[in-house]
Write a structure and sequence with these properties.
Elements lengths: L1 H17 L4 H8 L4 H25 L22 H11 L1 H4 L3 H9 L3 H5 L6 H8 L5 H11 L6 H13 L9 H13 L4 H9 L2 H8 L7
Helix pairs in contact: 1-3, 4-9, 10-11
Length: 218
């Protein structure tokens, strides 16, 4: 991802410096007789390049991202060094980068990396699990933080689809809190409506709270 973002940023910079708009765009501009409109359009395109480049530079902090994250794949043992892991820790787990324990753990694990890098019958997370099964909390926390990063925004997109089902054209007067409560039940409970009903009816404390007027007050 980092590599692709850097490619995108460089591509925007190259297009900006060359004033590149694309062949089809140039063909369409030839059809316009108004020189002022053409200049305004080109200026707006250059502004778009500049804004996009500045956005990547400001919000993604590409210069501060680790230059190499291939160490996580366990393919090249030489990449698994303290400086590289410390660079990733500064970005994801700053508290780890501020202590010396990470250096000690990397040194202790140097003998394990070559054998595990050649193990092809285990998945990547299983190999890291073997490495961190001993008392290596810093490496475990760093690797876990990286594996926890979503590979796509599918989870976020699913929230919108679930919300649309609950907030339909026929049920468009629900409060936001009600829709939120429905989504929490759908996502967090693996029980059917009948099972939830049976569970609630057998819980006297829950029944009292359901029948109480407290839920209608602040």
């Amino acid at each position: 991802m980092i590599r692709e973002l850097r490619k995108l940023q460089q591509s925007l910079l190259d297009r900006y410096n060359a004033g590149f708009l694309g062949a089809i765009t140039d063909m369409e501009l030839v059809k316009i007789n108004n020189v002022i409109q053409i200049l305004i359009f080109k200026s707006e395109c250059m502004t778009f390049y500049q804004i996009s480049f500045d956005y990547l530079d400001k919000w993604l902090h590409l210069d501060s991202l680790p230059q190499n994250s291939d160490w996580l794949l366990l393919k090249d043992v030489e990449l698994i060094g303290y400086k590289i892991l410390k660079g990733c820790a500064e970005l994801l787990c700053p508290e780890i980068a501020q202590i010396d324990d990470l250096f000690k753990e990397v040194c202790c694990n140097q003998r394990n990396f070559p054998s595990l890098s050649m193990t092809s019958d285990l998945s990547l997370d299983q190999r890291w699990g073997i490495i961190t099964q001993e008392n290596f909390p810093c490496i475990r926390k760093l690797v876990s933080s990286i594996f926890a990063i979503p590979a796509s925004n599918a989870v976020c997109e699913r929230v919108f689809s679930l919300s649309k089902v609950q907030w339909s054209d026929d049920r468009n007067k629900l409060d936001i809190s009600t829709v939120g409560a429905l989504l929490k039940v759908i996502v967090n409970f693996e029980m059917s409506c009948r099972e939830i009903h049976q569970k609630l009816t057998n819980n006297e404390v829950a029944l009292k709270k359901i029948c109480s007027n407290a839920k209608y007050t602040n």
